[in-house]
Amino acid sequence: MTTHFIDITLRPDPEFSRTHLLGALVAKLHRALVQLESEDIGISFPQYSLLPRSLGDVLRLHSDEAGLQRLMALSWLKGMRDHVKLTDAEAVPSEAVHGVVHRRQFKTNVDRLRRRRMRRKGETMEQASAAIPDSVERRPDLPYLHVRSASTGQPFCLFIDQRVGSGRAVAGRFNCYGLSLGGTVPCF
Q1: Could you tell me if residue 85 is inside a domain?
Q2: Residues near 58 by Cβ (< 8 Å), separated by ≥ 6?
Q3: Poorest-confidence range of 58-67, 72-81, 97-106?
Q4: pTM score of the predicted model
């Protein structure tokens, strides 16, 4: 259960955009969570916004106090310390409602989907086009991060869907990006 949190706020930087710094921060967190084999640390974005589409300047880490201490004992912020401001682990306010922060995946490029189908099934472009119409392509409107897969090295957009829920905490797990696999995080 997430009883404590740490806020990591990005400092303004003339050389790097906020988006670039947040992506680098989440990539470092990802590597640390993989190293810890942790499923009890979640994240949220207190300044999350759909209009304008933004994750904001703050990454909030959620866990129990021991989980956060275990994470912060690693040197995972090496190279980022000058770019961020950290709070100490604090107890979650009792009046906080809970929500879910998870990844959303979209079929965003119909041509890529068709080429992939052609390779997998040995089809022609006409066959793949018939199987995958233009209408499957979606234009996501969620905030996202540019990250690189630790396993394949491929860059991808990590679309974040953050929804404040009913107010009840739900115990559950989080993936190696700190995104929900059923667990909720406090939203305040």
Answers
A1: yes
A2: 7, 8, 9, 10, 45, 46, 47
A3: 97-106
A4: 0.84
Angle of helix 18-36 relative to helix 65-72, nearest 10 degrees, comes to 110
Name the nearest CA neighbour of 79 among 7, 145, 31. Answer: 31
Q: Report d(CA 124, CA 117) in Å as an integer.
A: 9
- Who wins on pLDDT, 167 or 64? 64
Alpha helices in 79-163 (DSSP H): 110-121, 125-131
Do 177 and 33 touch, CB atoms closer than 8 A? yes
Q: Which two tokens stand for residue 166?
A: 């009913």
- Please list the active-site residues: 30
Give the whole-angstrom CA distance, residue 114 versus residue 109.
Answer: 9
Tens digits of per-residue pLDDT, 43-56?
A: 999 999 999 999 99
Quick one: 48 exposed, middle or buried, by C-beta within 10 A (0-12, 13-18, 19+)? buried
- The domain that holds 82 is classified in CATH as 3.30.70.2540
Instruction: Domain of residue 39: give its range.
Output: 4-105+161-187
Place of tokens 């189908």: 117
- DSSP assignment, residue 42? E
